[in-house]
């Protein structure tokens, strides 16, 4: 049945949903009333239309400037540079960071054709107008993340701004025995004096 | 952000999708272009509106009568009674059954308030007009399935129709050691002479 296959396809294309789950969702959709469907489609439409990127930091926002950038209580001296909005949410949940963010929208990845041109970099440079004292690089610790870190360190050099990088190491609750050698190396390299 | 939470909620309400997956899907949605979103919403709307239940068997169909009921090559002498349309799809995939189906839309389940009134039973009785020689009961082998089997056997009695029930037992590739005792009992009870 073409219409059923089309419906399953819609959900199978979403990230993390396999064919089997998509089928299950499609049947669930078919059992909903027309009102429920209208409400659902309307929410998707309204959200997609109403959520944009903050003009300062690139975070998601319902307004031109996001809640974090427009929050007077945040420390405007520190900018934490992240890859995506998901990372902002993760740091916010941790309730340990009270500065600002800058969302790059990816990292330098020449193999996949992503260059500095594709990232939200110009806005970052514009923000470094003297009030910013520290930039924390919080990209995922992989090859592309390190490449991007190197690039950012280079362009931030000579601007009299402290540049730091989040620590890599064994996750809390993790197990040394089962930790990969790269992480183990990082955990030694980044060791902290305790006395 | 209310709009983002609303969007996540839409997907978190779908079956088999947790909060974390719903969040991932929501971000994916936000990255789509307006055209892609319109196409997606349109497909959902069209499918929901265009797929109905077959007037004969209750299977999903784009027309009044489903593809199976209107297929001349199917054996009209046998009706396989199933709980839902998913079961029809499963049997069709197995490519081992060539008769007709009847979708009950559930099974008798007094604890959850589902009685014979809520099932697609009248249509089934109407179909037993003499051309049908066998009814195969293919409900899931649990308490409610057995209750429904008993009820159906009772109303089919005296109609000069053969009533059968699909076999329960150890699944192909299954392991006797790890099979629950009820299934083991059924596998013995339903043993087949091999010589």
UniProtKB/TrEMBL annotation, chains A, B:
The chain's coiled-coil residues are none
Q: InterPro entries recorded for this chain?
A: DNA_Rcmb_RecR (IPR000093), Rcmb_RecR (IPR023627), Rcmb_RecR_Znf (IPR015967), TOPRIM_dom (IPR006171), TOPRIM_RecR (IPR034137)
Example GO biological process = DNA recombination
Single Gene Ontology MF annotation: zinc ion binding
Determine if Zinc-finger is one of this entry's keywords. Answer: yes
List the CDD domains: TOPRIM_recR (cd01025)
The record places its C4-type zinc fingers at: 54-69
Q: Which HAMAP family match?
A: RecR (MF_00017)
Family per record: Belongs to the RecR family.
Role noted for this protein = May play a role in DNA repair. It seems to be involved in an RecBC-independent recombinational process of DNA repair. It may act with RecF and RecO.
Q: What protein am I looking at?
A: Recombination protein RecR
What is the scientific name of the source organism?
Leptotrichia rugosa
């Amino acid at each position: 049945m073409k219409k059923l296959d089309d419906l399953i396809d819609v959900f199978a294309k979403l990230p993390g949903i396999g064919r089997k789950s998509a089928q299950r969702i499609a049947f669930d959709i078919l059992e909903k009333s027309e009102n429920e469907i209208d409400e659902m489609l309307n929410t998707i439409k309204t959200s997609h239309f109403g959520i944009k990127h903050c003009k300062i930091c690139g975070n998601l926002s319902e307004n031109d400037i996001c809640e974090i950038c427009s929050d007077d209580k945040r420390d405007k001296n520190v900018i934490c540079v992240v890859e995506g909005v998901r990372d902002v949410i993760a740091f916010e949940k941790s309730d340990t960071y009270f500065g600002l963010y800058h969302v790059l929208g990816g990292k330098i990845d020449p193999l996949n054709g992503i260059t500095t041109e594709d990232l939200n970099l110009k806005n970052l440079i514009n923000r470094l107008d003297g009030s910013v004292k520290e930039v924390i690089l919080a990209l995922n610790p992989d090859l592309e993340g390190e490449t991007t870190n190197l690039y950012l360190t280079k362009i931030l050099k000579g601007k009299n701004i402290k540049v730091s990088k989040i620590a890599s190491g064994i996750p809390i609750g993790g197990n040394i025995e089962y930790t990969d050698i790269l992480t183990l190396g990082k955990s030694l390299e980044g060791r902290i004096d305790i006395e």
